[in-house]
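Work Package 4 report. The design task specified in the project plan requires that, given a folded chain encoded as structure tokens, an amino acid be chosen for each position. We show below one input record used in the internal validation round.
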């Protein structure tokens, strides 16, 4: 595969490869590349680390199955381009003049007094404690007692960690809980947890690895949900421009209260591989593949039967672009996996070649043409 892609294969190898590709012609398979393959495999490895021995013994079978599926997907993408008579370089040339680079690390911490601290984009995480330090141990800046303590000298001051469009960052809270913020997201939390619970507010999307503390439940409050846990891993998507809030459980258990105008408050307890979707008309629990909803944390997009408008919202946040539509947006669905580290041209050309939708880049505006 790599000798074919880098142009070093001889004629015999090319002939064998093309013969193998012909066996998959016409199958509805997806579109990753070698960079995405690495991201997929790393994501599976990370997911498996720390699980019990029984799960670890299953790893070789899982790895083989995943590798086969991903390689076959890559074959379909290769043959699609070959059959169309359009090379990858020719397709990318449409967008190269106005290309847009992907998002990167970056965030701010806003103190209770309104001071905004810009965090380094050369770092990937910050730790909130008696002072602010980066996850590699280097200093951000010291905090004085009045910036940390409440009026009673016990509780903490309210802090806000925020990412803009095109940014992502990891924040370690005062109790040791790790939070990964997706683009255009923020959390509000005290610089020191006190009382009987650990409560934070979320607007946007975040992945949580909650530090265990049975005596002090951890609570995430969003527009339509309140998630309560003792110590577990889960993802919450609650953007203001999305009609629904989604909580997806990776491991452990969570109790979720939903708030909506139609039926009032309801409560559900989630098990791993379940998701609670809440909107203004109600809520429902679904069985899902969690990796589909936490792929952003592992640096790739994963689309599973998504319409173009949903996909473009994700691209809008990550690439810091404005998306407009020329004509009615297609209702066809897209399924595939792509690295979040690609320039937007590489993502758009894959979408275009997969379903025939077209795009135009002008500055930071991307027009979707049906």
């Amino acid at each position: 595969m790599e000798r074919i892609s880098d142009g070093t294969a001889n004629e015999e190898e090319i002939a064998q490869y093309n013969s193998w590709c012909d066996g998959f012609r016409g199958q509805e398979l997806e579109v990753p590349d070698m960079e995405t393959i690495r991201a997929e495999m790393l994501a599976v490895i990370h997911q498996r680390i720390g699980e019990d021995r029984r799960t670890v013994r299953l790893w070789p079978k899982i790895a083989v199955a995943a590798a086969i599926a991903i390689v076959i997907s890559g074959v379909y993408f290769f043959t699609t381009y070959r059959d169309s008579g359009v090379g990858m370089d020719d397709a990318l040339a449409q967008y190269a003049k106005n290309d847009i680079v992907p998002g990167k690390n970056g965030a701010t911490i806003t103190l209770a007094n309104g001071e905004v601290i810009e965090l380094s984009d050369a770092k990937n995480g910050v730790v909130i404690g008696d002072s602010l330090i980066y996850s590699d141990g280097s200093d951000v800046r010291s905090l004085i007692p009045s910036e940390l303590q409440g009026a009673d000298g016990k509780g903490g001051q309210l802090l806000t960690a925020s990412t803009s469009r095109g940014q992502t960052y990891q924040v370690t809270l005062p109790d040791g809980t790790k939070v990964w913020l997706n683009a255009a997201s923020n959390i509000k939390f005290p610089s020191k947890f006190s009382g009987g619970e650990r409560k934070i507010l979320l607007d946007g999307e975040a992945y949580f690895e909650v530090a265990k503390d049975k005596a002090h439940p951890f609570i995430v409050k969003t527009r339509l949900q309140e998630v309560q846990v003792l110590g577990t891993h889960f993802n919450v998507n609650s953007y203001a421009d999305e009609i629904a809030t989604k909580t997806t459980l990776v491991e452990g258990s969570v109790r979720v209260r939903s708030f909506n105008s139609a039926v009032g408050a309801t409560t559900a307890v989630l098990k791993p591989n379940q998701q609670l979707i809440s909107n203004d008309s109600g809520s429902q629990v679904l069985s899902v593949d969690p990796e589909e909803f936490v792929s952003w944390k592992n640096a790739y997009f994963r689309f599973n039967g998504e319409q173009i408008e949903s996909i473009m919202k994700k691209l809008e946040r990550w690439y810091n672009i404005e998306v407009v539509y020329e004509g009615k947006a297609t209702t066809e669905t897209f399924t595939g996996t792509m690295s979040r580290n690609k320039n937007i041209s590489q993502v758009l050309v894959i979408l275009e070649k997969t379903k025939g939708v077209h795009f135009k880049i002008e500055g930071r505006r991307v027009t979707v043409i049906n």
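The two ends are 34 Å apart (CA to CA). Validation will be extended to a larger panel in the next phase.
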